[in-house]
Amino acid sequence: MSTTDTDATELDIAQLARRTGLTSRTLRHYDAIGLLTPAWTGDDGRRHYGGREIARLQHILVLRELDVPLSRIGAIVDAAPDDAALAAHLTDHLAGIEAERDRYATLAATVRRTVAALKEGRPMTADDMLDGFDRTPYEPEARERWGDAAVDTSNARWDALGKDGQQRHLAAHQEVVEALGAAKRIGLSAGSPEVQEVVAKHYAWVSLFWTPDAETYCGLTQMYVDDERFRRNYDEVAPGAAVLLRDAAAIYAERELS
After folding, report:
1. I want to staple 238 with a disulfide (CB 3.0 to 4.6 A). Which of 5, 181, 187, 223 is the partner?
2. Was domain 1-135 assigned CATH 1.10.1660.10?
3. pTM above 0.85, yes or no
4. CA-to-CA distance for 206 and 223, rounded, in angstroms?
5. Which fold has domain 147-257?
């Protein structure tokens, strides 16, 4: 049955809130920002949703479960205007959900083995104890944003580094974060030589997996500001460090990448 068939699936706002666990206030907010418009509104002001709207809401909720920021969700669901496009999108999302399911199954097995080893006094290797914790939490969103080819290439380059190379790469990023924090604390400007040197290191760090041009590099650093998950990585060292990186990246991109 097409999701456009509404007779058997129509719900009013209160029913939809109960079925999803969302609040009516959240659903009204989704309407206000154009994310989820009801099929029709009654004379009493009550919103009603048909099959098409409920399918769109399912897409929204799946993306929320995959930690896609609300600011990005609208563009993604708008790119699935019909059943065929929606099915294609949900197929991609299903891969991310199933990967998380499998990861949690691995984690459960790891913890179960650790509990048994502790009770029995048996030693475990570090690899055994950490099995399942090596994850790429943003991969589903990255595939949605950049495409499978870019993510697959990035993953292959990451695997090729080996454990030592991966640790060095993570340490290099932490050095960038610390340097940005220090620059922010002492009041250096985005265009200062010291901050531009840090940004050059950040660009080189990113380019190990993907070489952005001026536009995409600026877009990436803007995302660091817009998305709380990324902004926190920088601002936990010094509030405003993510904004400093974004502003400095704009200058660097104009000078070096244009």
Report:
1. 181
2. yes
3. no
4. 14
5. Globin-like (1.10.490)
